[in-house]
Amino acid sequence: MLNIALPKGRLGDTAYACMARAGYECPALLEPNRKLTFENPALGVRYFWVKPSDVPIYVERGAADAGIAGKDILLEYAPDVYELLDLGIGKCRMCVAGPAEFRDDAAKTLRVATKFPHIARAYYSARSREIGVIRLGGSIEIAPLLGLSDVIVDIVETGRTLKENGLAVLEPVADISARFIANTASYQFKHAEIRTMCERLENLS
Ligand code: PRP
After folding, report:
1. What is the C-alpha separation between 146 and 50, in angstroms, rounded?
2. CA dihedral 22, 1, 25, 9 (to 10 degrees)
3. What pLDDT, on the 0 to 100 scale, is given for residue 34?
4. What is the pTM of this model?
5. Mutate which of 119, 136, 157, 164 to test ligand 1's pocket (most atoms within 8 Å of Cβ)?
């Protein structure tokens, strides 16, 4: 049996659709209830719905053998897992955004609001730019509007949230998409099952 952590929410349905198309369906998972674990013993698969940012924790610690996580989460938390495949779903960009007219004043510490403090620090440290990180849990776009920060480092998918809040992309940071990841020990001990799953996911057209 392979235990698979799936990200609840926006990416979750597409992630499960990939698994189903790869031959690992679990129809019970689509029923309207609040259960968080589902299994299809005939296909040797058990799924857990977890918070997207928790997927690498379950996989790193072996509670799940494999999972689907956004590259944003992998960059932010740098978990000790194998990143086996870019699934090509959940595509978006990590960007620096702010008011279109914003001009950085090198004499001042740049105030950066973000849910991704590690990514923000790494990006600006590579540019030798001193920043102050303001860590928020969501609705990041509000921070520059209220003067809480100068810019934000955040996910941009359609660009609609930025546009509707009068902000613009200032600098791209990284391309993001969902990745199939595996626990390092499971990859040894359940090698054949994980490789087969990975190859079937890779061969989806
Ligand atoms: C994400 C991200 C942006 C938005 C981008 O937020 O933080 O706010 O989506 O999408 P768009 O470019 O298509 O408008 P999410 O919906 O995950 O909510 P959050 O406010 O909790 O971060």
Report:
1. 32
2. -90
3. 86
4. 0.94
5. 157
